[in-house]
Design goal:
25 strands, alpha+beta, about 700 residues, 7-stranded antiparallel sheet, 6-stranded antiparallel sheet
Length: about 700
């Protein structure tokens, strides 16, 4: 699409009752990011109430019509996905604005490859709008969904706001209270952007008392980020039809005659939800040998079949009883918001022999049914392609919408776990999606520990599910085996017989990528923050080619490396494994302030690291040089000046590193490689990063 164009969704797909809108961007440094937001507008172009404003502190609509699904890595950047159940959007909502904002003075012009894509309920991409003229703005409207009669259409907007998310929200009618002391318990502490945490502080930017609206007709769009006059491209594509559209407020801009700065309170949000207490209550047991009764016991599980059957039943029953959890796991697969029922061991005809998928999920909304077949595996057992193919064929013939596979394995970008054949002649499309047990546990952690659910009973159910998934005997442990190539590759590195192009090295690299993705899920669930692997631009955008280069590096250097971006952290957490020395390295680089003296920087850093491990390595990074002085925290504490370059070179930052031995086994046992990597990242974050 081009800026200002519009298209009817029904003309592109028959499966548009629910859609997923993805906002994407890239950064050459790997550090650029933004927060997405959604506004539901009535016929006057305003929100009906503050509850129509969705962002990171208010991510889900009570009726499931809107759900912020979070970020996924994409090339050297990321994509932020938003699920819409268009059948659940209230009738009085005429338009849905999809926007994003940057924070701490960052601008959209600093990002690359800005884009918005829309996919249907089966996961098929319908359209793409690339943005090339974002400019120096801190908030940006990517596009909007709007009604025309009974049809939903999409318009490519591409409009920026100088005054950030606060100005954008106010222009669409979100209430910014004058009373900054309001403490109503039903109003969550929302939009840390307006409190100075995740966005530019609006109090630092003058906001005009009013902003004039700019009428838009046909595919025209209001003035761009640079304040230029509206443009009206003539689009001669059948699917892009010009038509009158409601007015879009003009971007707010700082003015000389603007009102004086004043303290701005936070917008109101949905009712506060329930999370588990940070400190568990004291047990009434007489001693530690007493075991609490569990809703989902694991002691009776004797074999893989028992584990698989129990895990399926436990998961599906909790999904049906806890709407927030069920919706969280199915929204990304195109499921609508509605009444959910789940079933196990359903018999379905297939040729001469009926098939029994492990489970079935059905969601009813406005008289329509959405159905997904579920196939689960536990204890490291692999999915069988012929079994999944049979379920895809059954789903296609019966008009079902999805097949969901769940196992301990982690899917890779651009590499499906199971290859299936799809008959392109069939009109009905079935989405094939995969969940790892680690991702299921991650979503449960986010809800009960950070985001909250509707009531305490739901929180308790999720806690019981999480306890079950994390039990040693459940078989739902996530990725736990580096594969058969692990031992031969380590031996080949030791005796220097591993050659570039060896397929076993590629298998180890793929296992490493799965492990890193699982580490991100585990750390993100603990912190309640987004943790994503970083893909540098220099490694290329093609996942297969990137893995091939990493495999060649493994053969030549005996090392695998990765970087993790943690929400709210200025740098990236690097983790690397040296298979020659058997050592793991976790590190982070800390930039120096713009002003001050080098010795002051060193002393301040050492004070912040007062509780860090004594064996932490600290290295001064110098301008135009391979590296400066270095030493352990234990040695530098009494002599901070030892970290200053003797030749007077300018310090640009500091690198903090912890080194530990890695496990040799390919599995997840106490001495295994997987456990050692997870422990290294957790230890580095809890003992070093938190102090920064």
């Amino acid at each position: 699409m081009v800026k200002g164009a519009n298209v009817g969704l029904a003309a592109l797909s028959e499966n548009t009752d629910s859609v997923v809108v993805s906002l994407g961007w890239a950064s050459s440094t790997g550090e650029g990011d933004a927060d997405v937001s959604v506004l539901l507008l009535d016929e006057k172009g305003k929100v009906r109430s503050d509850a129509d404003f969705y962002f990171y502190n208010h991510p889900v609509a009570p009726d499931g019509s809107v759900q912020l699904l979070g970020k996924v890595p994409s090339g050297e950047g990321s994509e932020d996905r938003i699920g819409f159940d268009l059948t659940a959007i209230p009738a009085e909502v005429e338009r849905i604005v999809v926007a994003a904002s940057r924070y701490e003075g960052a601008r959209f012009g600093e990002l690359e490859d800005l884009r918005v894509t829309v996919a249907d309920g089966a996961g098929e991409d319908l359209l793409r709008f690339a943005i090339e003229d974002a400019g120096s703005v801190s908030a940006f409207i990517f596009g909007e969904l709007y009604r025309r009669g009974d049809e939903w259409k999409f318009r490519a907007v591409g409009q920026g706001y100088d005054t950030g998310l606060a100005g954008l929200a106010m222009d669409f009618g979100v209430d910014i209270d004058d009373d900054a002391d309001e403490t109503d318990a039903t109003h969550a502490e929302a939009l840390s952007a307006l409190g100075g945490e995740s966005d530019t502080d609006p109090a630092s930017e003058p906001v005009p008392a009013s902003a004039s609206g700019v009428a838009v007709s046909g595919p025209s769009v209001s003035g761009g980020a640079d304040g230029s006059a509206p443009v009206a491209p003539n689009v001669e594509v059948t699917q892009f039809t010009p038509e009158p559209l409601p007015a879009v407020p003009a971007p707010r801009r700082a003015a000389d005659d603007a009102e004086p700065d004043r303290a701005t309170a936070r917008p109101r949000t949905a009712k506060k939800k329930i999370t588990l207490p940070k400190t568990p209550r004291k047990s009434l047991a007489e001693n530690e040998s007493w075991r609490g009764a569990r809703l989902f016991p694991v002691s009776a599980l004797k074999n893989d079949r028992d584990r698989e059957t129990r895990a399926t039943s436990v998961l599906l029953s909790v999904m049906a009883q806890v709407p927030e959890f069920g919706r969280r796991l199915t929204a990304a697969f195109g499921a609508p918001a509605g009444r959910m029922e789940t079933f196990t061991e359903v018999s379905l005809p297939h040729g001469d022999t009926p098939r029994r998928p492990d489970g079935v999920i059905r969601v009813e909304r406005a008289g329509k049914l959405w159905t997904a077949l579920v196939e689960t595996k536990t204890n490291g057992n692999a999915l069988r392609p012929e079994q999944v193919q049979a379920y895809m064929d059954i789903a296609t013939r019966r008009g079902y919408e999805a097949v969901i596979t769940i196992s301990n394995d982690v899917a890779l970008e651009g590499r499906p776990l199971v290859d299936v054949k799809i008959d392109g002649r069939r009109k009905h499309k079935v989405a094939l999606r995969h969940l790892s047990w680690a991702e299921v546990a991650h979503q449960a952690q986010l809800l009960i520990r950070h985001e909250g659910v509707g009531n305490s009973a739901h929180a308790w159910l999720l806690q019981e599910l999480l306890h079950y998934l994390q039990h040693d005997n459940s078989g739902c442990h996530g990725f736990q085996n580096m594969g058969a190539a692990w031992v031969p590759v380590r031996k080949g590195i030791d005796d220097e017989t591993l050659c570039p192009g060896d397929v076993r090295a590629l298998e180890v690299v793929e296992s490493w990528e799965r492990l890193i993705r699982q580490v991100c899920l585990g750390l993100g669930g603990e912190l309640g923050q987004k943790v994503l692997p970083v893909q540098r631009a220099r490694r290329g955008a093609d996942p297969g080619a990137r893995r091939a280069r990493m495999a060649d590096e493994l053969c030549a250097e005996g090392k695998v490396q990765a970087e993790l971006r943690i929400e709210g952290m200025s740098g990236v957490l690097a983790v690397g494994a040296d298979l020659r020395t058997g050592r793991l390295r976790t590190s982070v680089e800390v930039p120096v302030p713009d002003q001050g003296y080098p010795l002051t920087w060193v002393k301040r850093l050492l004070r912040r690291l007062a509780e860090a491990p004594a064996d932490l390595h600290v290295e001064a990074l110098v301008e135009d040089g391979p590296g400066g002085p270095r030493g352990t925290l234990e040695r530098l504490r009494p002599e901070p000046a030892d970290l200053l370059p003797k030749n007077g070179a300018r310090i640009t930052g500091f690198r903090l590193t912890l080194v530990k031995g890695m496990g040799s086994g390919r599995g997840n046992a106490e001495s295994g490689f997987i456990r050692s990597v997870d422990d290294a990242v957790q230890r580095f974050h809890s003992t070093v990063v938190v102090h920064l």
